[in-house]
Structures are given as structure tokens and as C-alpha cells.
């Protein structure tokens, strides 16, 4: 994994003024522990929040800064915080960090937890102060063993320094923080499935409402935020709303910076902290270096396996939620994948849908039955055994599993790349349809959305 500097060809160094998330990173990739973190102004924002700011002022500052969730949904963080109850008599509240980073082609949270564990802890400490939560959990993907080791060490360092535990910084505020490793389920990235898993239940999403802010962990008010989201909080508190907003490029409706990346057969695959509003072309050409010699860009996904495919001509889109929406898909996690011209889209989609089908919790029928059905059809087309009407059936499934049709967002994310692949590369799917034979009985009427 690499993380290069802010400018092309590494000409510009990371700094606190331009890289709130990554300026403290070590060049050797080792973790930044407490002494070094504090020497680099670590926990200064927490001290400011505890000494100079009322709890509601912290919430309002985050809201005014325009911070949005960095896990993929992009919900305004300050608005989510504002949903927590104001009733002071409710003295048991929880703060959960969603670190179950299982989106294929996404590794941004891993880098932050492995190399800057105290940045996440400081972000959670300030957030806990704002939300009046007395206990926090980092729900960590079980396979992230190095992150678990580093986070646990950082938690112990913070406890020993009086930054976690009882009477933090002499304020009378108590906050305990625990690292909880999951059992390897993609669906735990959905916040209510995460809550169920934390409680020891099956990781099924819950019905909403009630939302976690009202009824969350063990029935108590709970706020769930992504790793990268929480890591933005210290810089906002330390340097203010106007500075944070100024980081984004002109035209972007999203504020601040974002960890973005590119993988695939590019010359310089990696991860970079960039301002919202950079174009996909800058990310692809200036940072990822374009395609390796002998390969041509065929398609790309802007933010993980659950986002729709785009074509090379879409690279001029700005990388923020609204900019990517203009070309027909979602920003997602912001870590893009290049698909080269040697890849068959049917095979790629079959592989993706197998993953999403396997990771379905099985709670609702469209997802439980629809995703395996798509895999069966894609496998037949991949082997040249598709039948007339199979492509229409796949498009029907894309409609029936779309937003608002299933219990949670797992299925809509699963079929978004499928729909876009058929849209742009239908000829590859048609190539897998076998010639009509008298030995093959006619198909039943294919599924057509709205029929």
C-alpha cells in the first residue's frame, strides 16, 4: 500500500494546512505512537474541545463545517449527531466506530488505523464529548489483525496519559473505549447489522425507524460513524469551519479532503488525501499514472465494488457526491478501480455478484433469492450457455433489487455495477447467448420492471 503526496510527481509535501488526515504520517509507514502524535499537535483539538467549547457547540461546529460520512452513504455528520436525544436524564449512550471495512477495493480506513491510531481515538474522544456518550466501541473487521494490535496499544497509551477513562483532562467527563473485532461479515458495514453483531446477535439489519440515535446498542441512544469521518473531527475543531471548507475545490458541494485511490493495472496504484472536487482524470493520470504499458482503460468504478461502472470519457467528472452523480453513479468510498481492456465484463460481474450473493444476510426475499439468480444467469452467459431473455431477466433483477425495494442497501449496491455493465457493454453479454435451438423449450415471459 502506498500513500503519495498531495501534488503530481510528489512535488508538494503534506502539511497540516492542506492534509488534515495524513500530514502526521511517517515516511517509513510505521505507526505514530502517543509521544510522536502529541509532538505533532495531537490531542490539542481534544484539549480545546474540553476546555473551551460547550458540547452543543462541538456539534454545531461539525455541522457548519459540512462534514459528511466517509463510509459511502455521505450522510451529514452534524445532522446525525443532532438526532441524539437532548434529555440529560438519559445517561447511557454509545458511540460506535464502523471499522468493518469489507467493501472490495477499499482500504482507506485500514491505513488510518494502522498508521494513525491516535487520530481515530482523538476523533472519538471529541465526538463522545459532544454526544455525551460514556462508552465507545471500534467495531473492526476481523481480518485487520495489525489494526487491532495498533488500536489496542494506542488505547492503553491514551488511558495511561489520562486521555481515556475517568475524569478526562480534569473535566469530570468519563469515556471508555474498546476494540471489538467482528467475524468477517460484509453486512456488518450496515450500521444496524453492526449493532446486532456487537450485541452477540445475528448480523441482520434492523427496521428503521426507530433509528440508532433513539434505540441502538442494548436499546440505548447510539451514534455510528465511519473511521475516516471521525478522523476529520480533530482538524475541524482545531482549525475552524472556514479553513475546512476552503480545502475543497471550487464547484464541489462536499467540504474538506477525502482519501481517494486507484487500483487495477495502473502504473502507480495507491491512496492519496485529495480535496473534494478533483477530477477523476487527475486522480487517474496525475496520481495513479495512467494504465501500465500494454493496457488500455476500458471502464472504472469510482468508489468500491458497489458503485456503477463508468467509461474513460467520464474521467472529467469531479470527485464528490454530486459530481459523480452527474455521470450516473455514486462516489462511494472514493477508491476507484481501473478495468483494463483484457477483462471480460461478464466474468467480472459474475465474480462480483458471487461475493454479494454470499454476503447477503438472507433476511429479505429479493436479496436472498435475486442475487443467486443473477449469479446463475451470469455463469451461464459466461460459459456461452445463456438463453434468449437472460439479459432482460438480469435487467429486471436490477430493477427489483434497486433502492427502496429491499430491507437495506446491500442489494441495491450489489446490482448497481451489474446494471451499468449491461448498459455500456451489452454486446459482451449478448456474445454469451447460445443460438436458439429446437431442443431448447421456449422461455417463460421475462421479468420486465413495471409489467
From TrEMBL:
It is an enzyme of class 7 (translocase). Its EC number is 7.1.1.-. NDH-1 shuttles electrons from NADH, via FMN and iron-sulfur (Fe-S) centers, to quinones in the respiratory chain. Keywords: 4Fe-4S, Flavoprotein, FMN, Iron, Iron-sulfur, Metal-binding, NAD, Oxidoreductase, Quinone, Translocase. InterPro entries: NADH-UbQ_OxRdtase_51kDa_CS, NADH-UbQ_OxRdtase_suF, Nuo51_FMN-bd, Nuo51_FMN-bd_sf, Nuop51_4Fe4S-bd, Nuop51_4Fe4S-bd_sf. It comes from Pseudomonas violetae. It catalyses: a quinone + NADH + 5 H(+)(in) = a quinol + NAD(+) + 4 H(+)(out). Belongs to the complex I 51 kDa subunit family. GO terms for molecular function: oxidoreductase activity. Its cofactor is [4Fe-4S] cluster; FMN. PANTHER family: NADH-QUINONE OXIDOREDUCTASE SUBUNIT F. Residues 346-391 form the NADH-ubiquinone oxidoreductase 51kDa subunit iron-sulphur binding domain. It holds the Pfam family Complex1_51K. This is NADH-quinone oxidoreductase subunit F. Gene3D superfamilies: 3.10.20.600, 6.10.250.1450, NADH-ubiquinone oxidoreductase 51kDa subunit (3.40.50.11540), NADH-ubiquinone oxidoreductase 51kDa subunit, iron-sulphur binding domain (1.20.1440.230). It comes from the Bacteria. NCBIfam families: nuoF_fam, PRK11278.1, PRK13596.1.
Amino acid at each position: 500500500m502506498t500513500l503519495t503526496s498531495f501534488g503530481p510527481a510528489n512535488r508538494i509535501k503534506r502539511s497540516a494546512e492542506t492534509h488534515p488526515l495524513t500530514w502526521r504520517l511517517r515516511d517509513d509507514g510505521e505507526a505514530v505512537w502517543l509521544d510522536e502524535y502529541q509532538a505533532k499537535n495531537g490531542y490539542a483539538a481534544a484539549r480545546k474541545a474540553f476546555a473551551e467549547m460547550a458540547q452543543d457547540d462541538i456539534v454545531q461546529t461539525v455541522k457548519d463545517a459540512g462534514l459528511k460520512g466517509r463510509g459511502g452513504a455521505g450522510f451529514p455528520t452534524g445532522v446525525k449527531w443532532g438526532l441524539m436525544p437532548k434529555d440529560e436524564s438519559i445517561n447511557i449512550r454509545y458511540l460506535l466506530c464502523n471499522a468493518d471495512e469489507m467493501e472490495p477495493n477499499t482500504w482507506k480506513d485500514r491505513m488510518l488505523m494502522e498508521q494513525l491510531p491516535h487520530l481515530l481515538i482523538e476523533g472519538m474522544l471529541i465526538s463522545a464529548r459532544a454526544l455525551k456518550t460514556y462508552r465507545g466501541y471500534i467495531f473492526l473487521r476481523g481480518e485487520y489483525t495489525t489494526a487491532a494490535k495498533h488500536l489496542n496499544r494506542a488505547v492503553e497509551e491514551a488511558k495511561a496519559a489520562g486521555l481515556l477513562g475517568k475524569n478526562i483532562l480534569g473535566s469530570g467527563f468519563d469515556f471508555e473505549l474498546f476494540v471489538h473485532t467482528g467475524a468477517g461479515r460484509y453486512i456488518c458495514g450496515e450500521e444496524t447489522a453492526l449493532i446486532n453483531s456487537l450485541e452477540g446477535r445475528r448480523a441482520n439489519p434492523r427496521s428503521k425507524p426507530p433509528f440508532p440515535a433513539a434505540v441502538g446498542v442494548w436499546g440505548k441512544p447510539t451514534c455510528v460513524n465511519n473511521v475516516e469521518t471521525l478522523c476529520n473531527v480533530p482538524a475541524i475543531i482545531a482549525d475552524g469551519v472556514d479553513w475546512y471548507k476552503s480545502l475543497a475545490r471550487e464547484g464541489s458541494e462536499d467540504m474538506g479532503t477525502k482519501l481517494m485511490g486507484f487500483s487495477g493495472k495502473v502504473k502507480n496504484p495507491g491512496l492519496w488525501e485529495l480535496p473534494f472536487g478533483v477530477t477523476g482524470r487527475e486522480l487517474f493520470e496525475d496520481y495513479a499514472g495512467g494504465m501500465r504499458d500494454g493496457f488500455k482503460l476500458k471502464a472504472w468504478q469510482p468508489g468500491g465494488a458497489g458503485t456503477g461502472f463508468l467509461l474513460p470519457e467520464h474521467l472529467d467528472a469531479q470527485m464528490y457526491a454530486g459530481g459523480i452523480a452527474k455521470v450516473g453513479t455514486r462516489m462511494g468510498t472514493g477508491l476507484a478501480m481501473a478495468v483494463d481492456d483484457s477483462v471480460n465484463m461478464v466474468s467480472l460481474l459474475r465474480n462480483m455478484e458471487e461475493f454479494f450473493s454470499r454476503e447477503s444476510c438472507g433476511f429479505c426475499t429479493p436479496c436472498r433469492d435475486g442475487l443467486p439468480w443473477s449469479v446463475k444467469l451470469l455463469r451461464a452467459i459466461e460459459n456461452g450457455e445463456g438463453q434468449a431473455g437472460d439479459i432482460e431477466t438480469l435487467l429486471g433483477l436490477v430493477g427489483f433489487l434497486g433502492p427502496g425495494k429491499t430491507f437495506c442497501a446491500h442489494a441495491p449496491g450489489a446490482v448497481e455495477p451489474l446494471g451499468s455493465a449491461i448498459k455500456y457493454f451489452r454486446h459482451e453479454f449478448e456474445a454469451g447467448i447460445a443460438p436458439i435451438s429446437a431442443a431448447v423449450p421456449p422461455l417463460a415471459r421475462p421479468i420486465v420492471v413495471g409489467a
